Amino acid sequence: MKKLSLIAAAVSAVLFVAAIPAKAAPLTSDQQDNLVKIESILEQKPELIDGLLTSLNMYIDQENKTAVTLKKYHDWLYNNPDLAAFGTDNPKLTIVNFTDFNCPYCKRLDPVLQRLTEENPEVRVVNVFVPLQQREVVGIDTNSAQYALNVWKNDPDGYMKVHDYLIRKNGRHDKSSLERVAQVTKTQMLLDASNTLKPTIDKSYQIFSELGLNGTPAMLIGDQILPGYLPYDQLKPIVEEALKKLS
């Protein structure tokens, strides 16, 4: 009897989690079939039940924490003039992109996002810089994230040119690559680290961590969190569906 009670509890937790993404929609036939399979597996291997239930509870706790974090920092993420952005100034849909100029997958995602904003004039992308791979650069008192934010704050019209050069660099930036970008874009004066930028980058790290993210890139689109790189043909329908929901 105790074994059956544990199985019922675990399957109930699975049902609850499966219903989270779309509370108004019933389970699909595939989801129903999968739940039957899960119940069968747990009946045959009851030693899995406790671990499964613990994992599901941890998942639900993180979902709840994520919802609270998004609500708490919504204005900071979506309406913050200190965060670099591109696309329309009056968006219907804003994509928040946690990114790093030294991350190879972030570099691949950036042109995808730029293409989407060009094709969808109602879309804006806000870049939240989380320089996980480069806190410091030897020989220079700044890094790629600080430099980009400094340009955004002091020379917004020249920002995208700097941004594109930083994105196109293969591998990590170093002193010479940052100086070369600054020279080409005539932004040498903005290579100096600004103390006013540290709170913005520190806050970006904090929110990134509180959302349970552990790598870049990661995007917030509508009510979804999408970790990792997505190619254009996969990201386009997600953006279109988010726009449709807002219409």
Automatic annotation (TrEMBL):
It comes from the Bacteria. Residues 18-244 form the Thioredoxin domain. Gene3D superfamilies: Glutaredoxin. Keywords: Redox-active center, Signal. Residues 1-24 form the signal peptide. InterPro entries: Thiol:disulfide_interchange, Thioredoxin-like_fold, Thioredoxin-like_sf, Thioredoxin_CS, Thioredoxin_domain. One of its GO terms (molecular function) is disulfide oxidoreductase activity. This is DsbA family protein.
